[in-house]
Each structure stands twice: as C-alpha cells, then as structure tokens.
Amino acid sequence: MAGSLVTRKRTKVKTGCITCRIRKVKCDENKPSCKRCVDTGRTCDGYESPFRLFTCQPETNAHAGGSASSKPIRPTLDEITPQDIYLLNRYFSTKTMFDVQLGCSEEAQQCLQASLTDSTIRHALSSLRALREHLDTAGHVPTSVAQQNPSYDYGLQQYCMALGGLASNLSSPGSHGLKSALRCCQIFISIEQLRGNYAAMTRHILQGFRIMESYRARPYLVTAKELAPAHHEQLPFVDVFLIKLFIAPCKFADPPATVDTSGTTMPVSLISPNRQPVESRDSRTLAPDMRTELTKIATSTLAFLSKVSHLESADNALRLLPEKASLLDSLESWRLNLELAQTEIRPPGVELLSVSFMRFFHQILKVVLLGALDSSPDLYVELRTENDRLQGIASDLTENMKAYRKWSRIRSG
User: Where is this region: Disordered (predicted)?
Assistant: First the structure.
C-alpha cells in the first residue's frame, strides 16, 4: 500500500563468540579468537557456552528403591520462609559446615524470590540443595562412591538443566535475563565450591564479572569529566556476593605436616612477617595476622564498591580514585608480606590450604578493584593478565583441596 510503513523484523544472530553476543555487537567469527575482541583488548570467550562445564550423565533406575536418601528435593516454593533463607545462606558456602556465619541473607532471599517464576534459578537451587545435603550426610567420600548416591546424581542433573537454561537466556538477554544470569552465577559459584572445583568456579566468577562490565552494573568514568551511569538498575553484584563468601573466616584444618618426594615428614608453619618463625603445632593455625589484614582490605573494598554504585557525578568519581589506588597498594603490600612469610618457613613444604584460599581471595579482590570505575583500553590488557593469574591460582587450589580431602579421609579412618 502506498504511504504505508513497512516494518522489517530483524533476525537475531545466534552465531559469533560469547563475548560479542553478550555485548550485542557483530562478531567477525575469526577462530580461535575473534579479531573484534582481540583489537579491543577483551578476552574472547570462544563459541561455546562457558556455562557448559560438563555433560550431564543419563539417569538410571539403579537407585529407584524409595529409600530416604533418594527423596526428591522440593523443586518449587509456594512461599519463602525465614527458614528457607537461613538454609540457603548456609548452603552458599561449605565454610558453614564449621558453624561460620555468612552475610548473604539478602542474596538468598533474592534468589529464592526469583525462583518462584524462573525455572533456571529453580534448577540451580535444587542442585545446590541436593549436593549440599549429600555432603552434609556423606562427608568427604571418594568421588566414585559419591556419584553412586541418588542425591548427588540428582544434584548434577539439576545443575546440567540450569546450565542449559542459562545458555538459552544469554542468547538474547534482556533485563530479566541478565538478572537471572547473574543470580545463577552466584549459585554456580557455590556449587563448584561445594564440589571442590575452583577452576570451574573461577570460570563462573569471570563470566559474571564480564556480564556486569558489559552491561554496566555500576557507573564508571568515561573521561575525567564524564561519568557513564549504570545501564541496568539493581543488577545482582557477583563481586559483592563473592567477597562475602570469602571474608568469612576459613576454618579448614590444615595437616600438621607434609611429606616431600623423598618421603620425609616435614613440619609446616606460617608466620606474620613481624614475628619469629614458630613451628606449627596446631592443625588450625591459619596465619591470623595475615588473615586479619586481608579481611580489613576486603571490608574496605565492600565499602568502596557501595560508594561506586551510588555515584552521580564525575567529580565524586574522581574523588574515589585515590581510595581505589590505596586499596590496590594495600593488596600489593599484603602479597609481599605473604611471600616474605613463606620464605621464612623452614623447611619449605606444601602450601597450607588456608594460605591457598587467602591467595585466591587476594587475587579476586585485585580483579574486582581493577575493574571498578575504569573503562580505559589498557584496563582490558591488565585484566586479562590478572584473570589468567586468578585461573592459575584456582587450578592450584583445586589440587590442594583434593589433597586436603584425601588427608581428611585418612584422618577420619
């Protein structure tokens, strides 16, 4: 018809790398890394969903006996009760097995509320609950035995379904999809911590950070005179959730001794740089001075991130830059002190698990702070280096966790 408006429906492109699809920009689809990401200093996440971390095993009827342990996890909630919030707050971290208090009640309530209408979050929560209840019941058992448990199998099945749902949401994310993705990141982080797979946990962490950065979860400085406001209001903050998880005191009991390749048993210790070396006689020695200082930096980082979230002008943002620089300097000083403490251990041994956790937490704080307020091209190059470093620490932590669980089984007989 003459004079009529012709509306052409845009076809959604579902090819391209994950990074370009999240940013909603055209990807040149160069392999293995697209040129668009490389030229802008970003990390190209490739062409497969980063959330597909394992293949779900098919269900079997081997355990269909109606035993108490095979009782299905409640898939939905009719209403959210204080007990539900309390349990999820505990399930977020394995530290709560040692009666450590977490401060994630707000995140727990938000996830539970979202699960009433979001099946992806519901599957993720069902997975976390099943795997945590299995761990609470079975404790540290060999993986081959754990995988024969119906609760464990159900947890992996639900995890797989949540991963698939999230990959679908990310193909064309709107405001609801972004919130769902970030809440799932929080739950997946907890699931992989529960499984002791810190390498996979870190992939979820970095993906959550990239989503927050791509969709401007917080304001940031474009120039010294221009502040870009948050693009989406009230997106879940994966970094704040993560800091809350790790700021809680770690109470893993480290082995009182390690064995070198020759079979010689060696005492291990860790000291604060301002103290004399003392052989560790307590398996719960956690380098309290080092831990206390890192906790202070983490608490200050949470306060700093809160200020960034509420920025309204470039002038106020500029006033925060010295605080960011001071926090980064504190982190570097802490790292140097830790290395000094490590060199004073005589004789050297395998690093304590508690120290590995502190290294991991330290690197998380550094990555979080580097990305705050900044959008310069140099940032992406620096973040890529620090993200790779975080992934390496996570891989080491996964191996240390395996050794810890093996020691725990031997100790418990």
Answer: 264-285
